[in-house]
Amino acid sequence: MWIAWPAFLVAGVVEMVVFAFVDPQQLHGLNGEPLELSRPAVYTLAFFAFWIATMASSALTTLLAQSPFEVNRCPLPLDGRPSACPKTNGQATPFGMSE
């Protein structure tokens, strides 16, 4: 929900701004022929395209906003950790923080 709702609101605003300047009946496809879709269909498809684009942007921002501690943390208990996750309690991590 941290990504979907803000993206939904932004997609609504982008839709209003785009279609304030663009008439859906004047749009053409990649082959140069006019789209054979009704105005509500173009509005709906455009809204979902804007929503997906803004969700992707928000998801990427959320992913890149993680701290190194969140990325490198091993969520498994000490006795169940594989060799690729060697940290133990009390062992210092980079930047001097313990697990």
Helices, strands, pairings?
Layout: H1 4-21, H2 39-64, H3 68-72
Helix pairs in contact: 1-2
Number of strands: 0
Radius of gyration over alpha carbons? 23 Å
The portion of residues assigned to helices is 40-55%
- List SSEs in N-to-C order: HHH
Outline, from the CA principal axes? elongated
Main sheet?
Answer: none
Task: Please explain how this structure is put together.
The protein is mostly helical and 99 residues long. Helices cover 49% and strands 0% of the residues. The protein has 3 helices and no strands. Helix 1 crosses helix 2 (39-64). The two termini are 29 Å apart. The mean pLDDT is 85.
Output the keywords:
single chain, 99 residues, mainly alpha, 3 helices, 49% helix, 0% strand, elongated
Can you summarize this structure?
With 99 residues, the protein is an all-alpha fold. It is 49% helix and 0% strand.
